[in-house]
Amino acid sequence: xxxLGNSSIEVIEKINRxxxxxxxxxxxxxxxxxxxxxxxxxxxxxxxxxxxxHWGTCHGINVAYANLKAFFKNDPNxxxxxxxxxxxxxxxxxxxxxGDLEKVDKNATKNYSGxxxxxxxxxxxxxxxxxxxxxTPGIITEGGELGYALANAYGVALGHxxxxxxxxxxxxxLETATALASLNLKNLLSGSQNGKVIPILxxxxxxxxxxxxxxxxxxxxxxxxxxGFGFDPILIDGDEPEKFQIALENESKxxxxxxxxxxxxxxxxxxxxxxxIPLKNVKTDEKxxxxxxxxxxxxxxxxxxxHLCLEI
Length: 312
Fold this sequence. Notes:
Elements: H1 9-31, H2 58-71, E1 78-82, H3 88-98, H4 100-104, H5 112-120, H6 149-157, E2 164-170, H7 177-182, H8 185-188, E3 196-203, E4 206-207, E5 210-211, H9 213-216, H10 219-228, E6 232-237, H11 241-248, E7 255-260, H12 286-297, H13 301-308
Parallel strand pairs: 1-2, 2-3, 3-7, 6-7
Antiparallel strand pairs: 4-5
Helix pairs in contact: 1-2, 1-3, 1-13, 2-3, 2-11
């Protein structure tokens, strides 16, 4: 724990619990229409008839969100902008845990009824969409098209020196012309009359199922590219909260974080095999159903119930 400064073991454990809780909620949203806390053995009838959504990027989103919320918890002017909006179930899980979703939807309560409502209605008729949408609290970047998150983050900072905006950018997203050109905004909006934007490149290696360009660059080459835009590259190699908190405590004036995690981490498939639904035949294949059950149980459901303060 050396070098963590104000971050304690208790804070690190709390971040880890939150990540596991949100990972669980993502998987439950993607797959389940019943038996949301595995009160009994999982059955085919518990699985949604149509599986629609994206798993691969979600663990990384949960890692970033949990660490940022812990670090900036006392800053009312902190905002988070999500670039890979197809990872919406991760963002929604975090908004649910914090009670932000309930502020706009009275059914998203912190009890079993609310958890059932959250999970069943993801990618469900008249329910929640599979991608980030204007309905979501705080959303300014729609999830169906990548590339605009960084420009939108600078837009939030424009004329608001009190604001700090962290923006998570997918490595495939940074290949878009809009995202790459938006890196120049750092030089245009760096005056004291504007807020601070903290870019975080989520380097998980793949865009859909193809290798991403930035994940195939050497560390030196990627760092020099980022430095060329006037940022200080700071690598966070892995999903351990200790590393993330130490990086956030770095006193660099113009940080550009590179969060390096496996695509699909904590799930049954990794890398290019995890972009959307990892277990495509879970509705009819007994082997895949048991893999899903083991996957869900790996997050420690009893601890999750305690962490969410569910009234069950």
